[in-house]
Amino acid sequence: MSVEDVTPRAAYEALRTDPDAVLVDVRTDAEWNFVGLADLGEAGKQPVLIPWQVYPTMQVNGAFTDYLRKAGATPDSKLYFLCRSGVRSVAAGQAAQAAGFQNSFNILNGFEGPPDAEGHRGNVAGWKAEGLPWRQR
């Protein structure tokens, strides 16, 4: 299965304009707490927070798709998966597709993107670097 990549800006526009669009942030509790979250207030939405891997062991969350259903996702939902750099979100999108959520998308470069020349994230690409709304938890 192939999860379609979308830019952070395209994902944000879909989240703002499409009532069936849902942002699923698959990072860990530590990342949500210390790095920040996408702010969807303008869209009247909140991100759905479901870790793909459970900190600190980073074992894959075996109940991931069950949590998607509990969060209200349906086969008609358009799910936009977000992680730190766009890797875990692909795996989460593939699992979602396998569970019947065909409208699954990967947000390219994730929330923070790749590191810059000094090793810092959030400056080169991704949600934060695009200047999209975000907040500390």
Automatic annotation (TrEMBL):
Rhodanese domain sequence ranges: 17-118
UniProt xrefs under SUPFAM superfamilies: Rhodanese/Cell cycle control phosphatase (SSF52821)
PROSITE patterns attached to this UniProt entry: RHODANESE_3
Record InterPro entries: Rhodanese-like_dom, Rhodanese-like_dom_sf, STR4-like
Pfam families named in the record: Rhodanese (PF00581)
Protein name: Rhodanese-like domain-containing protein
